[in-house]
Amino acid sequence: MYVDGYPADTAFRLKSNQRLPVEITTTSGDRETAGLRRYLCPPRERGPHFSCFDFLIVMQAGFDVRSVAGQLAAVGGRFNLVSSSGTMAGVVLFSPDDLVRHARDARSWLGVAYTELSFPFCAEWAPGCLSLSQLAAPVPVDSGAAVPGDGIVQVRSGDTVVVAYRQPGGQLLDARRAVP
Amino acid sequence: MWPIASLAANCLMRGGRSPSQMRPIHVLLVGLSLLGELPAGPLRAQVCAAFPSLRQSRFRATGGVESYRYATKLAVSATSGRTLFGTIGVGRTRDGELDASTFDIRLETGADIADHERQLFLCPVVAVSVSLGPNDFLLEQNDYRYVDRAIGLGVAAVAVQSSRIAVLVAGGVRAARLTVTYLPSAEKRSSGSLGQSQSDNYWLAGLAVGIVVKGVVAIRPSVSVPFGFPGEPSALAVPFGREEGEISLGIGVAIVFGGRNRGIR
Description:
Structural class of chain B: mainly beta
CATH class of chain B: Mainly Beta
Number of domains of chain B: 1
CATH architecture of chain B: Beta Barrel
Radius of gyration of chain B: 22 Å
Distance between the termini of chain B: 54 Å
Shape of chain A: globular
Shape of chain B: elongated
Structural class of chain A: mainly beta
Largest sheet of chain A: 6 strands, antiparallel
Number of strands of chain B: 12
Order of helices and strands of chain A: EEEEEEHEEHEEEEEE
Number of domains of chain A: 2
Oligomer: heterodimer
Radius of gyration of chain A: 17 Å
Strand content of chain B: over 45%
């Protein structure tokens, strides 16, 4: 699950080492805290910007991307989306420091053909698209009984997930999502 | 804590496109954006770089580190000459977050023009730098080359002088033209991808203070600021690891040796 934050001031730039805490609760009893950080990397104004959290793995013929799940977990990542053929997958790193290096190292995993960073883009007519102020926090989600404070959001079918952020003035901003 | 206008929780694949759409996008983005990174330190004329001059020595060796906002540059150089001088230097600039680095080669020539008391100096300089890399930048199988040509003018003054120590204050500005070329990998070239290059002009200002001990050894803290990059942020050349208007800090050491009688200036 991704928690997205859109600062009111699009000129706002969160520093690389800063996190804005959000609280995540579920109706089945889980409660976790995640830290919003910049969605786009690197933190500079000029040049290409890629997702701070994601990269793509494409496998050689005859290899299934799920075979590298253990190595991915070892660097703090999970599959975000796996193609039906198993030949490629989008992955997310929950602690994405050194994302580029990790993505480069993943090329040496058995069966990996290549890896790519994720360069988000928008149609030119989309106003305010991909502001460098945009924040995000990827959160691991499992199904099962709630274990509060373990860093993973456990959900059950029918749950409602609530993400809350306390504004500087004290107001609470929240977003809700129903679990199918 | 900062005000956030809205929050959203999503379970969608990020990146604005599916994996099958991801492959062909990046060439143009990187080609347009990385065009132009050459680590360019303060003008390294002799006294105008706040290093001891070669008036009484034949050679000068320097080493230094510059801290950019997003990268670090290590460099060494050797200088020879007298009123007219030449410098050759090599260095490495690394951006850890991008897991990218360049190998830098610099050639420079200039002159120290002093007043009759050798208290004030004017230093015209011409410099050419070539940076090889970064290679496979952002995993795009593209290699980059930077060529930076600059002409500049430095000024310096002897602020403090004793029998053992002199303090030089120096500053300068140079006009630079930076050409960045990206070279796709052989595999990409075979599929029709061609290289691109782009050139842009910018300015680089620098200020340094050199503490010269016995006219032989110098320690030189410095600052430099690149500015004046034209156009859209995604379509211009900026020195690798640097950003417009950033104030970069550096520290250098130098030693002069060989030959002539030693002197501070």
